Amino acid sequence: MAKKRKISIKTAQPGKKVPKKSKSTKPRVNPMIFIVIGTILFLAAIILNVNSPDHSDQVNDWQVDEYGIMSYPTDRGIPIFESTIINDTPDYSLESIIFSSRDAQIAALLIIPTSGTPVPGVLILPGATVTKEGQQGLSEELADIGYASMVIDQRNLGGVDFQMDGQLFEAGEEPIEHKMVFDALSAVDVIRQKPGIDKDNIAIIGISNGGRFAIIATAIDPSIKGVVGISTSGYDVESYMDQNSGQISVNQTRFLRSIDPDLYLDKLPPRKLTMIHMQNDSIIPIELAQATYNKAEDPKIFYPMEGSGHGYNAVMRNALEIELGLILT
Predict the structure, then answer these.
(1) Which of 98, 155, 175, 329 is most enclosed, with most CB atoms within 10 A?
(2) DSSP assignment letter at 148
(3) Which residues are CB-contacts of 160 (< 8 A; sequence separation ≥ 6)?
(4) Average pLDDT, whole number, for the chain?
């Protein structure tokens, strides 16, 4: 176990390092207030025109096939980003990063532990309403284990609007939820550019709604080594469509499938899927997580944790450390 690192977030002028203080304060994780995304409400929100045009061939590099599977290129070019060191100590460096992704500028915080050799990297996708600062407790734990990690502020702080996105898809435009998947892929590209990180040894941790984007992004890019979903699940849209056969259009079906992680699980192997869930999670019941896990192929593992709560919990650390050690070899 590496020496405990105390990581504090400080402000700085661009391009300048913050002078070190004799002591630093461990950041407090903001209370996570999550948007309840129930499957019934989710499906009820999709009210679209039945007579919709087909648009299997999308513009640029964004594609959704006839079955509804989204894809982006694995070669996305060199990412455009700016990086400012905001804290630099003998144990770690903490950087503020702004990178371009589609039509947005995405903010991130990157921690790289000091090491004589490049360390594995982890992208963290927070749950809805959780900021990059609010997830620094997990980043600190990963640095303590020996992993670099980058947390991003997701578009809309991870919130989604299913009805609006469905309408965008019907119009042949790229939905925000699809762009959020691309943001995750772009973040991985940025991590790979950073000295001190092993560019061939990157995994994604997704929490709650972030776990859904994490599964899809990992499925799309086979170079990502594996995915850990914490307090997350798919939407099980196939069951909904079976129950409403003939009542929704072809494009409605394609859109629903395109945002359901369950439909991407078969693209993960031979990469490993790890799921960690509190047994008494009141936001996403463990039964929904177990249903998603049951649809996945090996290699996979599910950790039901005793207790209540939603999101990352300290009781998950041992399981997380074990699984990252197997994924990031």
Answers:
(1) 175
(2) E
(3) 37, 128, 176, 177, 180, 209
(4) 86
